[in-house]
């Protein structure tokens, strides 16, 4: 595949999204929630969706007055858990956490079993973060330029991990191959946790890993961070250059995590959830903690999140079609 000069900006918004539209300062007292709220994380523990959900858990359940029960339901790139929530009773007691792969479900799974634009409704995008190009400690490269040279010298000798076909780390790696003229084999996993373990263990050599997940392994010397995919460096990775700074153009990508609810969930419940999450995203202590991990707080409105999701679906569909990227 020839190099492409196309910038894939998987950016679902920025930190000010939640303030762009007027929102009610408060909502009428709701007879909700009346029992624990089940939050489905459609991936195994240890990935970015699970990590963000657990960081939000204590604050959000305090705001709602009921426990938040996290239910990890992995399978088929997260679509198994998403299908379960799409079929759930729309009473606000079953919610879904997703990340960037949600926008590509219709492209990856022709027999998905539900309509991403009809059967689930957006609540809010919670955070965004760049991806970090990491390699295991045994790879003899200290920066992106030397790694690209290594890939070109040994085409087909290296593997990269993803959390599944159509995810941002899969599509970003395919874009990386295209813009650098290299070849590296795709090894999909059921979630971030298993992928990270094999990456550290040397079963795969490379991954575009979410900033928050890469951080502890980079600090411990178990992984080497070669570049970050954002337009600018995030404070948590101040010493790691962007891919553009490293001489690779056309690869500006950010990942994100957001919340959805079953279609038919009463709008006051959706609004209450979004407002409470936005409040948390505005807490200085919480925001500072996110920044330390390479995450940016968002808290967008349902409308903003819905528009962004639709834009992402169209953009990735166009990219996959025009560039012939494989989702196998």
From TrEMBL:
Belongs to the UPF0065 (bug) family. PANTHER family: BLR1237 PROTEIN, TRICARBOXYLATE-BINDING PROTEIN. InterPro entries: BUG, Bug_dom1. Keywords: Plasmid, Signal. The keyword Signal applies. Residues 1-22 form the signal peptide. This is Tripartite tricarboxylate transporter substrate binding protein. Transmembrane segments: none annotated.
């Amino acid at each position: 595949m020839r190099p492409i000069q196309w910038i894939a900006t998987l950016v679902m918004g920025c930190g000010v999204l939640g303030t762009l539209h007027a929102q009610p300062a408060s909502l009428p007292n709701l007879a909700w929630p009346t029992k624990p709220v089940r939050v489905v994380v459609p991936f195994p523990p240890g990935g970015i969706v699970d990590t963000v959900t657990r960081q939000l858990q204590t604050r959000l359940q305090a705001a709602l007055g009921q426990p938040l029960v996290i239910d990890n339901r992995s399978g088929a790139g997260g679509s198994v858990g998403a299908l379960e929530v799409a079929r759930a009773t729309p009473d606000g007691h079953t919610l879904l956490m997703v990340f960037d792969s949600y926008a590509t479900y219709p492209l990856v799974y022709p027999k998905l079993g539900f309509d991403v634009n009809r059967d689930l409704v957006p609540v809010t995008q919670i955070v965004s973060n760049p991806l970090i190009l990491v390699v295991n400690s045994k790879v003899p490269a200290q920066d992106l330029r030397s790694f690209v040279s290594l890939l070109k010298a040994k085409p087909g000798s290296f593997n990269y991990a993803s959390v599944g076909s159509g995810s941002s780390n899969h599509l970003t790696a395919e874009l990386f191959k295209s813009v650098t003229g290299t070849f590296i084999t795709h090894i999909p996993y059921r979630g971030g946790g298993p992928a990270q373990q094999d990456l550290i263990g040397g079963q795969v050599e490379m991954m575009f890993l979410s900033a928050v997940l890469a951080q502890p392994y980079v600090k411990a010397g178990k992984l080497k961070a070669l570049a970050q995919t954002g337009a600018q460096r995030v404070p948590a990775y101040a010493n790691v250059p962007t891919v553009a700074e490293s001489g690779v153009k056309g690869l500006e990508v950010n990942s994100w995590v957001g919340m959805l609810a079953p279609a038919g969930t009463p709008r006051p419940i959706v609004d209450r959830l979004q407002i409470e999450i936005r409040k948390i995203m505005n807490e200085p202590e919480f925001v500072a903690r996110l920044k330390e991990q390479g995450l940016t707080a968002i808290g967008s409105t349902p409308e903003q999140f819905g528009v962004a999701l639709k834009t992402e679906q169209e953009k990735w569909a166009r990219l996959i079609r025009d560039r012939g990227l494989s989702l196998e």
